[in-house]
Task: structure prediction
Amino acid sequence: TTAIVWFRRDLRLADHPALSAACAAHDLVLPLYIHAPEEEGDWRPGGASQWWLHHSLAALQAQLAERGVSLHIRQGDSLAVLRQLLAQTGATAVYWHRLYEPAAIARDRDIKAALREHGVQAQSFNAALWCEPWQIETKQQAPYRVFTPFWRSLRTELGNPQPLPVPSSLRGMEVAGGTPLEALGLLPRIPWDRGLGEAWRPGEQGAQELLEIFADDAIADYAQARDLPSRHGTSRLSPHLHFGEISPRQIHRQLADRVAATDARRRPDIEPYLRELGWREFAHHLLYHFPDTPTANFNPRFDGFHWAAQDDAWLERWQRGRTGIPLVDAGMRELWHTGWMHNRVRMIVASFLCKNLRQHWRHGARWFWDTLVDADLANNTLGWQWVAGSGADAAPYFRVFNPVTQAQKFDPQGQYLRRWLPELATAPPPLLHEPWKDAALLKRSGYPAPMVDLGATRVAALDAYRSMRGG
Ligand code: FAD
Result:
């Protein structure tokens, strides 16, 4: 018999329950990718994600080709494509992995029902998360809204993960009528993607390489170094996790093995890192249980918050890294150039947008959606609502990040600032953090004066918050 394995955001061969199940129960497998961005509702992949997707699919194609198997790519309505291929191949089963975005859940539910109605075995699996969002609940059988108890509960479930190997019995089938990858038009027409190509290697192998580098080096110092944007102190696995090129189970297993193989006196503590992966699980838990939060405030009290009117010129200065605040501009330029931004800097640029400029967090979330290679509806929603103060377990609204003191603390020598602000590269640290203190430096460098006064806008933000609470 033949099975279709419908690849979506699980672009790997190892620890792939759908592929393993298909290979175990069927003689032949048709690996399929369907390009149907319109089925993702308001959240079709942005430009940077499309770039990643193209290269990740190319990597998967190459990996399958090494095993003599082709990836069949199609465009169009997913159910129609599946029906056509079932008829064309005589396949009796379709296997896939679950997604957690509201549009994908609705589509997949319909497809599963439609296939089963016609006697096709349609089966979905979990490959992206340690635990399904509905498996973890409070004692009152409600979803969690606070991270720490969620994590405590999830941590006890992790156990000793045994990721699946690449199935050795994989035998593919050829089907006519596929679409070449290039025809999907995922790569930009104007080539703005050079920086992305320099920074990343999409695909399962690229993910494994990053994990190796992290496990060899940065994990030992993660709890401290993760806050320093000038260092490669984090794993940078976020885009690989988003596209399912590596699973949290695999990461956990490999790090645990590494710990076990290390001399007891030099064993790295992997708990702080696992906890960050726990935030990813929490974000998926929240998105699943509160599916309108990509655009609606998690905390309805924020519906009464007085945002400033949308200011396109301000938004553009923020997007382009021309605010005149060095750490904000460095972060926004890192994002534009590499499709990624350091977590601490994400918090600071988001705080500047929501609090100092009082532009709605949705504007920021949209820009990140289009420019991040790791743009992820669950994580991005959690991140923006956390900073805005409107989220579940969010930063208190009155905590306004000061981008100057943050830079002085986390980039004291200014290596990060200099990397992304070449026009200020020769300014020594005290001035590099506050270049407006030297009018001649601004003139000479062409670096803009601050677009707003940090102190005054902080006070205005706190006033707006107070009036929301009073109202
Ligand atoms: P590491 O420190 O190595 O962490 C390992 C993994 O844990 C990450 O790859 C990620 O999957 C997960 N993780 C870490 N921190 C968080 C977090 N705070 N929330 C959820 N998961 C986390 N992350 C995304 O993957 N996609 C997004 O679209 C996204 N948008 C964000 C927007 C804002 C405003 C903020 C403040 C944060 C956002 N994050 C997002 C979370 C975080 O910044 C990134 O996951 C992290 O910087 C990725 O780098 P890393 O892989 O080196 O992280």
About this structure: The chain has three domains: 2-127, 128-160+203-289, 300-470. The first strand starts at residue 2 and ends at 7.
